[in-house]
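Ticket #260: bound-state structure for biotin.
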Amino acid sequence: MPLIDPVLLKTRLGNLAGRFDVDALDACDSTSSELLRRVGAPAGSVVVADRQSAGRGRRGRQWLSDPAASLTFSLLWRLPAGHRPGGLSLAVGVALLRALTRLGAAGVCLKWPNDVLLAGDGGFAKLAGILVELTSDRRGTQACIGIGINLATPAGEFAQPVAGLERAIAGGVERHALLAAILTALVEVLDTFTVDGFAALKTEWERGHAWQDRPVRLLADGEGERSGICRGVDADGALLLATAAGVERILAGDLSLRAA
Ligand code: BTN
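RESOLUTION: The complex was predicted; output attached.
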């Protein structure tokens, strides 16, 4: 039996249970791949799996999930034709920050474009990753929102420090309560995003931004290093870096932000 029981999850979701159609699996290749194969699935469809054999991270990286130590799921959302999806992955970060803060987590913050970090004595460590995959046609945009959260600190070698939620919430959090809190925050944030776009969530993102108004060095793929003051993001979710030459808009890429 999968670790998530959809019936128990429904009770935790209360009034919002009707907004979701949750399928819990023991294992699959990737919850996002599985959801994307379900052509015509309605908005609010969720696939959650204990184990992924081919979990996908950003930029073709692998995302490992250990059933005892992680929560991995994907949610389908739809935006109407003409809606600009810029900033959607940042909006998802806001939902995670809201949910974890409501559960009592301390030290959770955001890194552009879509990492959720935990601040600690030794600096920042990655707590959760977000992978948003968009497909558009004349009816609008479909977003497959994949989220992986470390419940315990993963073992092994990683490109950056990693942390588990157990470090942010004393005693940890029951996984149904956690998933329900995240889905609740996601529906709130995505309803706002659908009507008003990322502009309505920008201030909240910046309040949670680990490098807001701080001097940073920005290391981007194939480009030189740039230094400046990180001025947050604009209404489309682009990162704003104030340099001697003016304010630069950083739109995409695999950026490494380092405190200057
Ligand atoms: C990142 O690189 O930081 C994003 C990681 C996103 C991982 C999640 S786990 C659930 C969903 N299914 C996947 O295959 N990937 C996403």
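RESOLUTION NOTES: The chain is about 25% helix and 35% strand.
TICKET STATUS: resolved
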